Amino acid sequence: MIDKKTVHAKRATQFIFLICGLGIASWAPMVPLAKDRLGLNEADLGLLLLSLGLGALVTMPLTGVFISKLGTRKVIMGSVLFAALLLPCLLIISNIYLMALVLFAFGCSIGGIDVAMNAHGVQVQNSYGKPIMSSLHGLFSVGGLFGSLGLGFLIKMGLNPIHAAITISILLILLLIFQYRNLFNYSTEKEIIMKFSHVDEEKAVSSRFQWFNSSVLLLGLMCFIVFLSEGAMLDWSAIFLRDNKNIDPEFSGIGYASFSVAMAVMRLTGDSIVSKFSGKTVVIGGSILASLGIFILTFSPWLILSLTGFIFLGMGAANIVPVFFSVGGKIPGLSPTVTIPVITTMGYAGQLAGPALLGFIAHHFSLTIAFETIALLFIAVAVIYKLRKS
Q1: From CA 375, how far away is CA 381, in angstroms rounded?
Q2: Structure confidence at residue 205 (pLDDT)
Q3: Handedness of CA 328, 330, 331, 334 (dihedral sign)
Q4: Residue 144 · residue 21 · CB < 8 Å
Q5: What residues contact 84, with CB distance under 8 A and at least 6 apart?
Q6: What is the rounded distance in angstroms from the CA atom of residue 93 to the CA atom of residue 30?
Q7: Got the DSSP string for 139-187?
Q8: What is the DSSP letter of 365?
Q9: What per-residue confidence (pLDDT) applies to 274?
Q10: DSSP state of 252
Q11: Contact 27, 106 (CB under 8 A)
């Protein structure tokens, strides 16, 4: 029977994933405002946006060290408070160098939340005894949806942008305060790690060579591929539909919208799917479905069929990463404070580097070839995971 402490921790972790999605997505509608305020062209804006990703990448490998010393609950608290305080600043800074620095710091806070919430989610799942990671990531997607629309809605309601951003920051802090005491404390986390990883926490963290464990790196590499596809859809799907399918520019975002909704729905229902079919089946089947979706959207001459391809891609990719986090949190002899930061960092690197890699392929060949390269990588994930020892 599941104890009340674990049930409350699960609900609290769901709120943290929602907070992270809400926080990072709230930056998206600020980007055009920042571009106009700072007087940037597209190239300069691209360099500025890189600051956020670099901040996250720098912080993610270090977060495991802080977790091992303080526990995920304190790291989550510090990271959320830091992000909430920085968010309104992104609307008022008028110096590009200071903006880059603050955006870097904001990325650091988001990276800290991301690693800590996934590490905490894995521990709650282990204690819960049932898959929960897919629904947690689904709530991150829901938070992203509300975050991308929330700032604009508040401005539309009559608030000026800075007051709207402060309102969102207050909401983030209130949600954190409301659920903080229900998150697992440090001693509870150590007990769970000892039980499910069969490893002493301090001994595990002290050996940094465990970062180079082949099982961890393999999961990280496959996570890189899946996150690469998400970054590709975000940055290239609209261009693909406009240039390759002759869709009007004002409707070119429909592909990413279809992909995102399909992914969110599948993640919210993913725990029952993983329980019924096993994580291995979800990864292999999801990779094949995602690959099929890409081939459909690239070869189809009809828009409706292309959108079906985007939906298949979102459905297939949705629950792969949650399974990887679940597996990474149970590798014998390794602590989640070692494995989760590595897997998260490699995955996030794929989301950042992916669009640039696709741009390189598209420049030398075509965007269609670039998309089909992702399809082949998904097939590789299916084959690798099929051959991987359980």
Answers
A1: 10
A2: 46
A3: positive
A4: yes
A5: 23, 169, 170, 172, 173, 176
A6: 12
A7: HHHHHHHHHHHHHHHHHHTT--HHHHHHHHHHHHHHHHHHHGGGS--HH
A8: S
A9: 92
A10: T
A11: yes
What pLDDT shows up at residue 141?
A: 85
User: Which CATH superfamily does the domain covering 4-197 fall into?
Assistant: MFS general substrate transporter like domains (1.20.1250.20)
DSSP state of 245: S
Q: Do residues 83 and 110 touch, judged by C-beta distance below 8 A?
A: yes
Rounded CA gap, 128 and 7, in Å?
Answer: 8
Looking at residue 68, its pLDDT comes to 86
CB neighbour list of residue 114: distance below 8 Å, 6 or more residues apart = 20, 56, 60, 344, 348
How high is the mean pLDDT in each 10-residue block of the chain (390 residues)? 86 95 85 86 78 89 89 95 96 93 95 93 90 91 81 83 92 95 88 70 50 84 92 80 82 82 91 91 97 95 92 95 91 82 89 79 88 95 87
> At residue 84, what is the residue type?
A
- The alpha carbon of residue 342 and the mean position of all alpha carbons in its chain are separated, in whole angstroms, by 14
State how far the Cα of 223 lies from the Cα of 226, in Å rounded to an integer: 5
DSSP at 368: H
**Residue 110 in tokens:** 């988001």
Q: Which spans in the chain are helix H?
A: 4-25, 31-38, 42-70, 72-86, 96-128, 133-156, 161-179, 186-197, 201-206, 214-244, 254-268, 270-277, 279-299, 303-317, 320-328, 336-364, 367-387
Sign of the dihedral through C-alpha 70, 72, 76, 79: positive
Phi/psi for 240 (5° steps) reads -60, -45
**Residue 295 in tokens:** 């081939």
Q: How far apart are CA 324 and CA 91, in angstroms?
A: 36
pLDDT value at residue 33: 84
What's the full length of the chain, in residues?
A: 390
pLDDT at 199: 59
> Which residue ranges does the chain devote to CATH 1.20.1250.20?
4-197, 211-387
Q: What's the DSSP call for residue 87?
A: G
Q: Coil, strand or helix: which one is 207? A: coil
Please state which CATH class domain 211-387 belongs to: mainly alpha
Helix (H, G, I), strand (E, B) or coil at 302: coil
Grouping H, G, I as helix, E, B as strand and the rest as coil, residue 202 is helix
Pull the structure tokens for residue 173: 């802090």
194 CB-near residues (< 8 Å, 6+ apart): 200, 201
